[in-house]
């Protein structure tokens, strides 16, 4: 993001970026009490947090659009999250449009990592996030309200989470195993708003877990532009340009 526009004096100032790439759980992350909003607040004046969540998408579609979202001008991206699997793990017989077979899911994640590396986003800047656990009774209510049957199950989601963790090990990226971490609390239903998407409590949990992995990637970033008390009011150009 250019702070100084055309014709402004001084060099153009560009904010570093943390990019959040995923499905609806990412798209909703800037809602009130959302995990993306939390990160943006923590990183204000250091970098932009950019939401590229696309509701309903799976990795089959995500790998096709990634090159349109991130081009060769990716040097400003200091970290990126890849957060898919909640849709890929939909049951094939009941939700064939979103379902992606487990082996293809893993291959798609690897493909996205390889693309990011091709535009100079190294493994140490990539964080994979597994799908969260599914609370089946709550999600079944949400499905029935739309005239559908329960189209996901937690055990299947867990297989996709394990595949995501393995991809991270194979490719040398960070990973946040949300499926496992959330279930350390025996009753994880409070982390979910409808059995699938995050509640405010779940979003707070994700934000805290993600920050512990993200902090070391952004800790060296300086605050951009001087604190207002440090601006020379008699000659602001000297301290701002």
What does this structure look like?
This protein is an alpha/beta fold and 241 residues long. The chain is 40% helix and 11% strand. The chain has 9 helices and 5 strands. A 5-stranded parallel beta sheet has the order 2-1-3-4-5, sandwiched between helices. It is globular, with a radius of gyration of 20 Å.
The SSE order reads EHHEHEHEHHEHHH
Q: Regarding CATH, which class?
A: Alpha Beta
How far apart the termini lie comes to 17 Å
**Number of domains in the coordinates?**
1
CATH topology: Rossmann fold
CATH architecture: 3-Layer(aba) Sandwich
Our estimate of the beta-strand percent is 5-15%
Poorly predicted runs are: 1-8
Helical stretch count? Answer: 9
Mean pLDDT across all amino acids = 89
Most strands sheet:
5 strands, parallel
The residue fraction in helices comes out at: 40-55%
In short:
Helix content is 40%, strand content 11%. With 241 residues, it is an alpha/beta fold.
Give the SSE map.
Layout: E1 17-22, H1 24-27, H2 35-42, E2 48-53, H3 59-69, E3 77-83, H4 102-118, E4 126-129, H5 136-145, H6 154-171, E5 174-176, H7 178-182, H8 200-218, H9 236-240
Parallel strand pairs: 1-2, 1-3, 3-4, 4-5
GO molecular function, one term: hydrolase activity, acting on ester bonds
InterPro entries: GDSL, Iah1-like, SGNH_hydro_sf
Organism: Mionectes macconnelli (McConnell's flycatcher)
